[in-house]
Amino acid sequence: MTETATQPIVVEMDGRHRRRAANRDAVIQAVIELFEEGTAAPTVAEVADRAGISQRSVFRYFDDVDALMRAAIDEKFKEATPIGMLPAILPSTVVERVELLVDTRAELFEFLGATARMVRARQFDAPLIAETLARGRELLRRQVRFLFSAELDGEPDGVLAALDLLLSFESWDLLREDQGLDVAAARGVLTTGAVRLLGAG
User: Fold this and answer.
1) Are residues 123 and 173 in the same domain?
2) Residue 1 confidence (pLDDT) above 50
3) Longest dimension (CA), the chain
4) What is the pLDDT of residues 108-128, one digit of tens each?
């Protein structure tokens, strides 16, 4: 008798949780889509309309707009994580390692695109977003330090700083958006610069 009585309640709760999770995901995806369409600071009305829910419903899933923006950024960065990873077995030569890193960064930065621009635009008025950006930058810096540890050993810290700057999203965005280079040309610029910084060309 107990099983019969509780079963409808369990089914109802499972359905409610699924709907809640689906709506929350829809809100996050709506924000990401708006970022990618060039809307740096989507309004709650825009997000709700894109997600197909009411504005009031948005705040059932997020405490405030900053929490919503952070969730969307975290989701996009989570999707980007596999793209930015290096293989377990690395090339032996400096030039090959530079080419590998530049190709990886090019794919990563093209994927992040508008979301990365929005993060940088809002870092000064949103502490949580600034924290996410700082964490991402440190991960990329450590990747450079690891990949070229032998070449950087004994070199002044300025060489690592210059490599970090050259291989940053900001450099990539400058080449692609400001200078209008295509992906292949931008990769070439970064590869040449990194090889020379490392004294391999």
Assistant:
1) yes
2) no
3) 80
4) 999 998 888 888 888 888 787
Quick one: 43 and 85 in the same domain? no
- Whether 2 maps to a domain, the answer reads yes
Q: At what angle do helices 157-166 and 183-197 cross, to 10 degrees?
A: 180
Q: 119 near 132, Cβ under 8 Å? A: yes
pLDDT tens, position by position, 65-94: 888 888 988 899 899 999 999 998 999 999
Kindly state whether residues 93 and 169 are assigned to the same domain.
yes
Helix (H, G, I), strand (E, B), or coil: what is residue 179? Answer: coil
**Lookup result for tokens 């700083």:** 161
Q: For residue 195, count CB atoms less than 10 angstroms from its CB and return exposed for 0-12, middle for 13-18, buried for 19 or more.
A: middle
Phi (first) and psi of residue 87, to 5 degrees: -70, 160
Query: Do 177 and 111 fall into the same domain?
Result: yes
Closest Cα partner for 127 from 70, 72, 47, 42? 70
Which pLDDT does position 91 carry in this prediction? 93
